[in-house]
Structures are given as structure tokens and as C-alpha cells.
Structure to design on (321 residues):
């Protein structure tokens, strides 16, 4: 949870990932005697609710997939797991996958994951201040301390864009790395002036009197794609049938999730500790089946401007399906 969807790939981790990329992936089981065991690395957050619901609905078993979901702190753990064959597929935020691509880590997106609602003020993530704060807009974040769950990732890029569009100076923001679960307390104590918060912590901040002053996802791009499911390029090349079946099952899960929000709120209780009251009130992401490429081009360009990719530009052609 601590790393949520802004899952950084630190230089050290990337080095390990790259090393793992040279190891042979687990050979796919081509047997026909029963369902194929498939393990997916996920983060225990709201965004992955569709895959849990899809498993319950039989969208994977109907395609011969015996799905096992294994939770991890974030992509820093999931990407190496995918490359080593411990996981056949994984879930990660887009910026982390872009960082991986610029490091020549052999992964590729196979299905969409989650997206912004596209509604300013009604998104599942936003920049919030504590009750009584003098900051009333994104421009007021200039020169302030802002919490993000991971430095140099999607939080930095999108918050800077909110400030830039509001007429502030994004270069003067001091970002502070704090896990999402700890952000409400950090705001209350004054440890930071503002925080980029996502659900369910966003609901907790608002319940305590906090105010959302910017919707950083919607400020970045309309209907921004936030996260995706991915696989190693070795598996994609060697077992296209499995990848096809998994992608079809995920897409069915995403479409079903978008059409059945009540069932999504219910399935959250199966893998999170979010209370029933919060589950009923929180804002859900959108789960389109298609990656919004235009939004990723914007995210990549902004990340390059902000130095997220170490002076290189992500090659979306090598990352997208």
C-alpha cells in the first residue's frame, strides 16, 4: 500500500531488474489437462479491484486460467517478479513502466489498468490541504512542502502540471516522500503543507475537514491512463495464447467493473481493510479497456521536462501493446 500506484523503480532496483531480465522466464505450462496456473503481482489498492471481481465472476477460469493474485508493495517488487517468472503478469503505474522502458527493462503493457475519472474535483486522487490552510489553489503550492508517495514519479509530474497551469512556479515545490496511509496525519501535524492523496486516504482527509485544491490527474490530461497490466517481452513472444486469454479476461473484468460499481465496493472488502462506510463514499477510478495513448504522450513529455527519465524520452511504441 505504501507505494500504491506511484511505484518508483529506484536505480538500485532497476539494476536488479535489468539483471533479472537476463534470466530465463518460467516456461509456460502448455498442458491441456486442466486450468493453467497464472500468478499476477498486484498492489492491494482500489485500482486493482476489477481483477479480483473478474476472478470471482469466472472471467479467467472460463479461459482456462487458474488465477492467483499475489500482493506486493509496488512495482519495485512486481517488475523483478515478472521478469524472473514468479509472476506471469503484473500491475504498475504508467510512469514506473516508462522509467523501466527508458532503462531497457524488457516489459510491455498487455492491458489497461485504471484511469482518472476525468472530472475535476471528483477524481479518486487530488492535492489536498488540511482544514484551516491558507492555501486555496495550486498556485499557492509554490515554495511549499508537498507529500507524494514516491519521489520522481507520477505524483511529481502531475502536481507540477497543476501548479504550472494555475500560474505558480512548479520548480520551487519541495516534494516529501510519505506513504499514502501516513499522509492524513502528515497534513494534520503540519509536516507538509499539502499532499497528493488518493482513495481511500482522500476520503479520510476530506472527512477531517481537508480541502482538495487541485485535481492533478485531470490537470495533466483528459481521462489520464494511470496504470496498466504488463508482462515480460519473453513471455509475450513465447506464449501469445496465454497473453491473449489474460488480456481478454482483464478487459472483460474492467468493463464489468465500470458497469457495476456496487460490486466493486463489495469486492474491496475481500483484500483491503477499508471500512464499509468509506467503501460506500470513496470515489472510484474509471476502468476503460483501452489505454489513452494521447494522455501517455503528455505524461511522457511532462516527465521528460521534469527530469523523471534521466534525460531520455520514453518510447511508447516499445511499451504499449
Amino acid at each position: 500500500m505504501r507505494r500504491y500506484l506511484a511505484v518508483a523503480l529506484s536505480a538500485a532496483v532497476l539494476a536488479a531488474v535489468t539483471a533479472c531480465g537476463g534470466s530465463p522466464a518460467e516456461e509456460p505450462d502448455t498442458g491441456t489437462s486442466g486450468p493453467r496456473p497464472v500468478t499476477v503481482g498486484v498492489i492491494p489498492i482500489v485500482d486493482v479491484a476489477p481483477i479480483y471481481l473478474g476472478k470471482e465472476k469466472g472471467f479467467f477460469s472460463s479461459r482456462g486460467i487458474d488465477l492467483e493474485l499475489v500482493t506486493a508493495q509496488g512495482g519495485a517488487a512486481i517488475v523483478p517478479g515478472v521478469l524472473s517468472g514468479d509472476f506471469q503478469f503484473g500491475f504498475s503505474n504508467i510512469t514506473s513502466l516508462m522509467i523501466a522502458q527508458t532503462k531497457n527493462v524488457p516489459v510491455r503493457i498487455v492491458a489497461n489498468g485504471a484511469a482518472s475519472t476525468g472530472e475535476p474535483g471528483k477524481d479518486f486522487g487530488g492535492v489536498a490541504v488540511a482544514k484551516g490552510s491558507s492555501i486555496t489553489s495550486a498556485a499557492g503550492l509554490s515554495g511549499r512542502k508537498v507529500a507524494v508517495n514516491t519521489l520522481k514519479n507520477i505524483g511529481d509530474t502531475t502536481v507540477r502540471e497543476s501548479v504550472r497551469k494555475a500560474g505558480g512556479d512548479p520548480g520551487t515545490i519541495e516534494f516529501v516522500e510519505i506513504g499514502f496511509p501516513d499522509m492524513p496525519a502528515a497534513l494534520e501535524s503540519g509536516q507538509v503543507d499539502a499532499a497528493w492523496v488518493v482513495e481511500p486516504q482522500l476520503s479520510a482527509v476530506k472527512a477531517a475537514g481537508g480541502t482538495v485544491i487541485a485535481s492533478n490527474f485531470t490537470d495533466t490530461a483528459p481521462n489520464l491512463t494511470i496504470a496498466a497490466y504488463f508482462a515480460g517481452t519473453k513471455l509475450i513472444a513465447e506464449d501469445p495464447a496465454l497473453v491473449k486469454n489474460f488480456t481478454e479476461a482483464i478487459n472483460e473484468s474492467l468493463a464489468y467493473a465500470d458497469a457495476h460499481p456496487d460490486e466493486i465496493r463489495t469486492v474491496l472488502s475481500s483484500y483491503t481493510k477499508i471500512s464499509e462506510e468509506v467503501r460506500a463514499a470513496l470515489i472510484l477510478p474509471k476502468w476503460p479497456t483501452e489505454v489513452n495513448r494521447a494522455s501517455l504522450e503528455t505524461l511522457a513529455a511532462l516527465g521528460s521536462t521534469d527530469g523523471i527519465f534521466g534525460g531520455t524520452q520514453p518510447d511508447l511504441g516499445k511499451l504499449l501493446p
